[in-house]
Amino acid sequence: MSLWSRTRNAVYGEITRTSMELFLTRGFDATTIDDIAAAAGISRRSFFRYFGTKEDVVLGDLATRGDLIRQALEARPDGEDPWDALCAALHSVKDAAYGSDEEMLAVFKMVHQTPSLRARSIEKHLQWQAMLTPEIRRRLGADPSDPLDVRAEALVASVLTCLDVAGEAWGRADGKVPLEDLFDAAAAAVHGGSS
Amino acid sequence: MSLWSRTRNAVYGEITRTSMELFLTRGFDATTIDDIAAAAGISRRSFFRYFGTKEDVVLGDLATRGDLIRQALEARPDGEDPWDALCAALHSVKDAAYGSDEEMLAVFKMVHQTPSLRARSIEKHLQWQAMLTPEIRRRLGADPSDPLDVRAEALVASVLTCLDVAGEAWGRADGKVPLEDLFDAAAAAVHGGSS
DNA sequence: TGACCATCTGGCACTCGGTGTCAATGAGGC
DNA sequence: GCCTCATTGACACCGAGTGCCAGATGGTCA
Fold first, then answer.
1. Which of A172, B116, B132, B183 could lock onto B166 through a cystine, CB 3.0 to 4.6 A?
2. Are residues B166 and B149 both part of a single domain?
3. Which residue ranges carry the DNA-binding annotation (chains A, B) (predicted)?
């Protein structure tokens, strides 16, 4: 690994750490890009060379996690009910990207309380949806070129919606109940006959 | 009705008409507020006195429609299955806010293709979710102060997600299939044992 | 009719997020 | 040492959105 890559990774981490600290103390909207740049010791312009938007600092690695979920889904047994397979795939991808539970909780609260972050978060879920739908279509035996077969999209989108609802409730409850339990309860309420 | 209200309504309609025409021809992102203001014969500043954001011109009346859906939901029989009641409430609120089907289709496509519009649209759905959840909680007999009971939120959010999926498919299919049919198919795929 | 108040309006300056450009700097390979 | 290329900071620019203020206009009361 060249020096360029190393310094780039270091700066990347420095921006992330500095930004999150500012976000969690001052609040997301109250923190400007200039604040971050000054605190991280870089120029305003360079910030945008590492992150496309301010929201990407918080939600940047969500795209990566979507790929993990897709892999987990494809690893599920072929005959399994698609809904159950989706739930299992989500279960198997624990959030290992956070330093501590308190930090993860604080981030969750911030995302769900900040409109722009909430919107971006849902956009990321739409990306996940696009990543997971083909596999569900295959399992359903749906014609890949039929734009009118909405079953796969509906299943994937609803499971992700359950995850979103569970995440919001988890934040409201200050993490006192495991996120997985909330997700299971949400999924069971929507899709009656499964775990 | 005073002259103030009448002129205000007139200006409101003029901005809406002019904006939509520009959006549908040039595209949403390619149309600036200055373009709209110039075409509508008002000042840039006045535009923001009628609409909080550019997206509100397209999605402004969605909040109103959410209230209609809530009323339709509350009018459903008390013993009805919550999921079916939600679906029926959505069915009963047809989109009467569009001049023609082609225009409605064009607006749908624009919303689903423009990230900022898509995000705002989802935010509006979150508002609907907040409006509809209390009634579903009541029907489920859930404790209103229990933040851990996610069943109602999950049901409402999933139904709205099905509507979103159906809307997207409807746009992809150029409106060749009734939106209601797509919604029913999506809802049936998610919530197995109902129409 | 004239005075008075509320409302609406346009114009200006400003903040903030995000982008294009360009010259300077420093690492990597020859 | 030299050439190339990625990275950087600085500057200018754009568009969305807000705060402020002076002026115009409608509504109301005397």
1. B183
2. yes
3. 32-51
